[in-house]
Please model this.
Amino acid sequence: MIEVKKLVKRFGLKTILRGVNFTVQPGEFVALLGPNGAGKTTFLRILASLSRPSLGEVRVAGYALPGQAAQVRARLGVVSHMPLLYPDLTAEENLFFYARMYNISNPALHVLEVLNLVGLAHRRKDLVRTFSRGMQQRLAIGRAVIHDPDVILFDEPYTGLDQDASEMLDEVLRSVASQGRTVVMTSHDLVRAEDLATRFDILSRGVIAASSTKEALQNTNLLAFYKQALAD
Amino acid sequence: MQSKPIALTVLDIVSVIVLGISTYLALVFAPTEAVMGDVQRVFYFHIGTAWTGLLGFIIASIAGIAYLVSKDMKWDRFGVAAVEVSTVFFFLTIVLGSIWARPAWNTWWTWDPRLTTAAITELIYVAYFMLRQGLDDPEKRARFGAVYTLLGGPSAILTFLVIRLFRSIHPVLTNAAEKAQETMGMTGNMKVAFFFALFAFTVIFIDLIWHRVRLGSLQEKVEQLKLNASS
Amino acid sequence: MNPDIFTPRDTARPSFPGAVLAIIQKDLTAEFRSRELFSAMLVFSLLVIIIFNFALELDITVRKSVAAGVLWTTFAFAGTLGLNRSMAVEKDRGCMDGLLLAPVDRSAIFFGKAISNLVFMLIVEAIVLPVYALLYNEMRILQPGFLGVILLGSIGYIAVGTMLATMSVQTRMREILLPILLFPIAVPVLLAAVKVSGGLIAGAEWPEILTPLNILIVYDVVFVSIAYMVFDAVVEE
Model:
């Protein structure tokens, strides 16, 4: 579903990604872990078609980036640590706007479905301005799945959420991921990642330093694996 | 580190020589203008700097387009060099123009279309440098810089055209300015000084741009070495 | 929750006008609810006109010759307020990324934002002009030709302004930088607009204002085309 070969990204003279190879099979839930500044967000922005690769090959949902960005965008949902929502619009209006941007037929009905999915149907007429951080993040997930994407990218979705909100987000995340979608999530919360993902990749110094599926990890814990990968 | 190319050294020397000759032609060789007197001699350098300033402006726009098409940083270095050199030359043009205007029209400044356009172009350049300064990512800096020079070109042309329409507000001065340049009635020796000044400043301009582009690539190398050393 | 709750739908990309319209409606809905941008622009415009009144001692003779200049200066300043605000809204919560993630043409985003900015500016102008006309008994500024010039001038100003505001919100200086970037580039459109509107107030004949009118139109065409062509260079990384 995602295929990245020898990806290099430079910002001016600084090389952030130094030859990343990364493949994700359909239906996998990959947690992309790594210390701050390892290039997780940069990598995700490239997968999201928001940033161009300097070198290398990137294919998402069968289309090449940046050449076929429009086709990729139509099949891709992104949740970042910013909500990407308009505070002066209601929950419903926000989703309706994005539904139009993705040319979804029968948007009104669909918006309601999505609001039910993220558990915000009762607040649909309220301004996003009045929402708590957790509710905004759930609505942001609703926004990201409004066009039923094949691939979903989460960039630190738990940033700024308290315990309750995080648990509620867990639930929404799980239901969104369980529908055969391919998911890549960056996080530095190892506990949450261990709980949700089926595979763990560790990005360090601009390359994937280690990768392991949940099954292969059965007898060691994720923290040990993470520390081992960074130490190498 | 590569040493200074011989061609550049030669060009440096040629620049100094042509500047010397041009100074001689302007100050000694050319006859004193009958109406305006000696102050008219400023005109040769005034035209020389104005012409190269304009050249730099055009080159910057072309480099901007080339950068946006190719995304090659060398075009950005070229564009910055052209803008920087052009900024200095336009500034000189305005100063020399003022020196000339004072005795000719009894004022330091006239809202003549050429002068005003040069001044507004200077402001576009200042904005260009402020824009670049506000951006940390060199790639974005190059991209935004290119877009801004692209907007600046047509705007400067239209500014010139539109300010000409306002001449009715300053009829005496602007008409005098037009006349001074169109009916100057240059004699043979004046023409020699005039065209040689154009030639001399073009050589100096190329020399300066070359230096600036070279400085830009050396700067980049230093940054690269620093990064390598620190990581 | 199972996948069947989603009704099937096609994932075709929205048409160009469809995307433009969606962005305009989104901006207008948000703005008519909060009225933050709009009220700031309007109050600011009226204050500027009052200040001009006393600063220039607008007696009846002076008034006629400077009316066009006063009006366009006011609109230009109020315009930068609106442009900054409109782009900051997109930048602050990452909404610009949201727009860029949608499978629409980048130029559709430009036209969407530019047209909603234009609408805000025209609404402010539609209120300021009659107020000015009443205050100074200058009914000529309400003639159709004059309103046409207001429209032409605003189009060019907003096209360049939207482009430059998109750039300036991405810099460290943000709001402060917009007027510095915009005014030198907008000199021709503002001066041509002043020239034409001044001519109309003075009751000039057509041939007299034809040249600045042409420059105004050329500016609009040239800068809308440039913005259309290079907008993706200011939003994509």
